[in-house]
Amino acid sequence: MSIPEEETEVFIKRAAWLVESAGRFAPIRTTCLKESLVLHRILDRKHIDTELRIGVTRTGEHLKAHAWLERNGVPIFGYDPEDGYQPLTSA
């Protein structure tokens, strides 16, 4: 069941908040990848297309990875440009 386009943004924000809240209180450790996948699935069930993105950044000798969601090329969940993650290209 899809939702009207004018309600999509509100639904995305509410669903993202719920996923983040559930992650804080979950009995198991959540990660950015797990939360992004859960939100992607929730939005997919409402026919809201999103793209799972994975990026990396280097801190000294350490390589760190991060996952987030984008919709129409715009980050909607889990991305802060100040973190410096560079998206990996699609294969």
Number of helical elements:
2
Low-pLDDT parts are none
Mean pLDDT: 92
Distance between the termini: 31 Å
Strand order of the largest sheet: 3-2-1-4
The helix-strand sequence is HHEEEE
Please bin the fraction of helical residues: 25-40%
General form: globular
Number of strands: 4
Class inferred from helices and paired strands: alpha+beta
Q: How large is the share of residues in beta strands?
A: 25-35%
Instruction: Work out the radius of gyration.
Output: 14 Å
Number of domains: 1
Major sheet: size, sense and barrel closure?
Answer: 4 strands, antiparallel
Topology:
Layout: H1 5-25, H2 32-45, E1 51-59, E2 62-71, E3 74-77, E4 86-87
Antiparallel strand pairs: 1-2, 1-4, 2-3
Helix pairs in contact: 1-2
Summarize, please:
The chain is of the alpha+beta class. The chain has helices at 5-25, 32-45; strands at residues 51-59, 62-71, 74-77, 86-87. Helix 1 (5-25) runs antiparallel to helix 2.
Descriptive key words:
alpha+beta
Structure description:
The N and C termini lie far apart (31 Å). The protein has one domain. With 91 residues, it is of the alpha+beta class. It has a 4-stranded antiparallel beta sheet. A hairpin with a 2-residue loop joins β1 and β2.
